[in-house]
Every structure is written in C-alpha cells, then in structure tokens.
Amino acid sequence: MFNLILFGPPGSGKGTQSEKLVVKYNLHHLSTGDLLRSEIYNKTALGLEAQKLMDKGQLVPDEVVIAMISSALDSHPNSNGFLFDGFPRTSAQAEALDKLLELKNAPIAVMLALDVSEEELVKRLLKRGETSGRSDDTNDSVIRARIIEYHKKTAPVADHYKKSGKVVMVKGEGSVNEIFNALCKEIDKRIHGTE
Ligand code: B4P
Question: Which residues are paired to 157 by β-bridges?
Fold first, then answer.
C-alpha cells in the first residue's frame, strides 16, 4: 500500500493534481474538501454546520474530518494506496492519521508540498469562484482568511512530517502538466527507486 499526502495552501492545485495522480498510480483519492461539499450538497446536519465555517474561511473541527477519513479508510480495505488531499490540515489531524495508518501497517511514504505565491493563490481562487458556485471562492477577504488559517494551523503539519524526512517541496507554478511531471518524478523515486 502506497500512501501519500498532497499538501499546500488553498488554491495551490491539490485537487487538480490529485485527479491526475490517482489515475496514473491507481490510488484512492481522499479529499476532505470534497467529502464536506458532498455533505453540504446533501444538506446533512454535518454539512449545514460545515458550511457556516467554510463560508468564513475557517477549518471544520478536527473530530469531524478525522471521523470522515477513518470511515473512508475502512470502506476501502483492499486499496492499492490512498492520496490524501487537503488532509491533514492540523497537527491533531496528522497525529490521528498516523495512528490510523499504523493499524494498517502502511505509513505515509511522502508528503509532496506545492509551493505557490499568495498573489497567485488569490488570483486562481477568484477565477474559480466565477464559475464554481463555491461561496468560499468569491470573496477576496474570505480567501485571505483561508490563507491566514493555513499559515496558522496547517503549515505546522509539514513540520510534523519533516521530522521523519518525508517532506518534498515541489514548485506549484507553471502548467498543470509541468507540475504533474515534477510530482510523478518524486513518486516514481519512491515506488520504483527510479525517476
Ligand atoms: P479544499 O477543498 O481542500 O480546497 P482548496 O484548498 O480550496 O483547493 P486546492 O488546493 O485543492 O486547489 P485546486 O486544485 O482546486 O478546502 C475547502 C475548505 O474545506 C477549507 O477552507 C476548509 O474550510 C474545509 N476543509 C477541507 N479539509 C479540511 C480539513 N482537513 N480540516 C478542516 N477543514 C477542512 O485549484 C484551485 C484553482 O486553481 C482551480 O480553479 C484550478 O483550476 C486552478 N489551478 C490549479 N492548478 C493551476 C495551475 N498550475 N495554473 C493555474 N491555475 C491552476
């Protein structure tokens, strides 16, 4: 089982790259953002609560997303591996994930961290907001709040994995294919021992 985390600030391209990586490496895509948006779409109690926080650019409580990930892992016992997209986003989520994967004897192999400037992030998200219907993408101040939340609570997650030498920074600006190729190079090194 090959497990990896695609990491980076809001709008860095995690979702975009994940879609391509899961096809190439036959991994199961676990995006907490997508799982939460599906709860919102289905108007569940969890979705209604999550929407209030997401609309302010804030994170959803750890216990909610940890429970979602735990049940998603249980539903795919024979998976070839998981690509975690947008999770873990806090140190508590990282610790919980390590414990869940310990039970499967399949720790995180690598954290690939997309590096993108703040101006580019805001530009991308406002552009997506024009067509996505995502309420957290249409307002400049909500986007900035998400980036502040990222620096405060999410950036320390990389320190957690740096301790075990698992973090690789990848340039997240350029064409989608250029970035995809750079990510594949890092994955191939770990899967096949080649580039
Ligand atoms: P997420 O759904 O995780 O999404 P994101 O951070 O907004 O974006 P992502 O990095 O995936 O960017 P994308 O590829 O789409 O989070 C949304 C919210 O959910 C959070 O704010 C939080 O409230 C909540 N949440 C989620 N997970 C949580 C957790 N674990 N704990 C607590 N709360 C949680 O790309 C963005 C745009 O850029 C797209 O329009 C794309 O087309 C464009 N783009 C991508 N690559 C590009 C490139 N190379 N060049 C130009 N444009 C590019």
Answer: none
